[in-house]
TrEMBL record:
It comes from the Bacteria. It holds the Pfam family DUF4389. It comes from Streptomyces sp. SID7499. InterPro entries: DUF4389. The chain crosses the membrane at residues 35-63. Keywords: Membrane, Transmembrane, Transmembrane helix. The keyword Membrane applies. This is DUF4389 domain-containing protein.
Length: 81
């Protein structure tokens, strides 16, 4: 491929180098424990998203009446995101 400012000799000068470190070996028990810890995390996220859904509805009506989104609604929705 032709480019005006480069020569064929310069092609090797800018080759990227990628070093990949092999991950450490993990015990099956710790992997299982991490998977079990995901369950309460997903429960909390589910509850937060349900609360955010209703907060969006309340915030929409508040913005319709007040002309702006209340700060508390904005902060909560920003935190959920």
């Amino acid at each position: 491929q032709w480019s005006p400012g480069r020569k064929e000799a310069d092609a090797d000068e800018f080759r990227p180098v990628l070093d990949i470190v092999e991950p450490a070996r993990q015990r099956r028990l710790t992997v299982l424990l991490r998977l079990l810890l995901l369950i309460p995390h997903f429960v909390v996220l589910f509850v937060l998203h349900i609360a955010a859904f209703f907060t969006v509805i309340v915030g929409w009506f508040a913005a319709l009446v007040l002309g702006r989104l209340p700060d508390s609604v904005f902060r909560f929705l920003t935190g959920v995101l």
